[in-house]
Amino acid sequence: MKTVYVDNNATTQVDPRVFEAMLPYLKDLYANPSSMYRFAGEVSKGLEKARRQVASLLGADPDEIVFTSCGTESDNTAIRAAIQAFPERRHILTTRVEHPAIKNLFEHLAKKGWRVTFVPVDSKGHLDLDILYRNLIPETAVVSVMWANNETGVVFPVEEIAREVKERGILFHTDAVQAAGKIPIDMKKVPADMLSLSGHKLHAPKGVGILYVRKGTPFAPLLIGGHQEHGRRGGTENVASIVALGKACELAQGHLDEENTRVRRLRNRLEEGLLERIPRAIVHGDRENRLPNTVSIGFEGVEGEAILLMMDEFGICASSGSACTSGSLEPSHVLRAMGVPFSHVHGSIRFSLSRFNTEGDIDFILEKLPPIIARLRELSPYWKTRGGRRTCNSQIMSAL
Ligand code: PLP
After folding, report:
1. How is 26-60 classified by DSSP, letter by letter?
2. How far apart are CA 89 and CA 75, in angstroms?
3. Beta strand 4-5 with 316-317: parallel, antiparallel or unpaired?
4. 3-state secondary structure of 220
5. Which among 137, 175, 224, 294 is most buried, taking Cβ atoms within 10 Å?
């Protein structure tokens, strides 16, 4: 069975050119880059080339790039470094729609005694900037606002927010895990202090990320150990994956135009095709101000997990807007924050494309999905009555 992979905000296929670039570092170039001999110097050269490639994608200086193990580590390092730099400031601010790497960290810090502001969004997924700016106070240690949302693709005005936050002498971090490689990022224009990026979202392997730290930003490592990364992250570098990330960033830079033309066109064709063929479907979030590869769409009266299971029968891989665990539904915090009605939250599916998707993939989804939704609606007492709802499991069981 063929696989139609449209879940690229979850993870991406390693680009074959990235795979080729990392191979020598898994085989022959195995020395520890910190060692003194020339053999190690060869390895270290690969590491430093990768640093330059990442810096170039971000419009940054190579010295401002710290290699980490993933986006989550980068997010945690940034926030913990900031609160350590200003121990007397006990207020921190973020948004209601962050990825759990930030959301759960801020909730954890709230339990530890920090006062946390979670800025709300409107029905289009736009941040309430009045509330954000009103809550920037002398006690604020750090503000973290994602560049683009992983579920809806909505892009936040990070340049403007960073400027306002910096004018008040507060540290600013942005989680750019979903934005990097999909839309241009230029740290010369955006005065953020720190930025997180993850390799496996832009066609590098899992287990590598970076934290950008602007020169002069107060910083403390999360992993205390050896002198690697100029003392900013202890632990022997994952050289092969770092080389892969460097290559992936170089390729992403070359593919930015394609993301905004071919990938965007495919996404739009998928979105418009589904809206035409399936009644009572809505797109979540601002359709203009959005990543070119992402669409989150809610189908009234059906459950996301049932849709995913039925699409899986055809090899279509996507994500739902809720997690169906232990017979209970946990609707997406992002869609809830946007006030999406429950009837649509539960039937929400996120499609996220990449440069590897084709017109044929879109044709296939447009052929298979409408009958799946129609079949699930036939089985749904909600759809018949527009009244009460069945449980997640019951609809999945009857769909199979
Ligand atoms: N931040 C955002 C916006 C994400 O979408 C993700 C992953 O989905 C992460 C952080 C976490 O990245 P990683 O899986 O590399 O830890």
Report:
1. HHT--S-TTSSSHHHHHHHHHHHHHHHHHHHHHT-
2. 19
3. parallel
4. coil
5. 175
Residue 117 exposed, middle or buried by CB count within 10 Å (0-12, 13-18, 19+): buried
Q: Flag residues of the chain having pLDDT under 50.
A: 325-327, 387-400
CA distance 172 to 144: 6
Q: What is the dihedral of CA 41, 43, 46, 50, to 10 degrees?
A: -110
d(CA 325, CA 354): 29
| CA 286 to ligand 1 center in whole angstroms | 21
**179 within 8 A of 187, measured Cβ to Cβ:** no
Q: 294: part of which helix (H) or strand (E)?
A: strand 294-299
Residues listed for the chain: 400
The enclosing H or E element of 256 equals helix 239-258
Same topology, domains 4-11+255-398 and 16-254? Answer is no
The half-sphere exposure of 206 on its side-chain side, counting CA atoms within 13 A, is 6
Q: What fold is seen in the domain 4-11+255-398?
A: Aspartate Aminotransferase, domain 1 (3.90.1150)
Task: Tell me how far the alpha carbon of residue 177 lies from the centroid of ligand 1, in angstroms.
Answer: 6
Which residue type is seen at 117?
Answer: T
Question: Looking at residue 259, what is its pLDDT?
Answer: 83
Atom of ligand 1 minimally distant from the CA of 149:
3
Domain borders along the chain are: 4-11+255-398, 16-254
CATH 3.40.640.10 is right for the domain spanning 16-254: yes
In three-state secondary structure terms, 364 is helix
pLDDT score of 215: 97
Q: Is 249 a catalytic residue?
A: no
Q: What is the pLDDT of residue 114?
A: 98
pLDDT at 382: 75
- Quote the ligand 1 centre to 199 CA distance (angstroms): 10
Atom of ligand 1 nearest to the CA of 146: 3
Mean pLDDT of the chain, nearest integer? 94
Give pLDDT, residue 385.
72
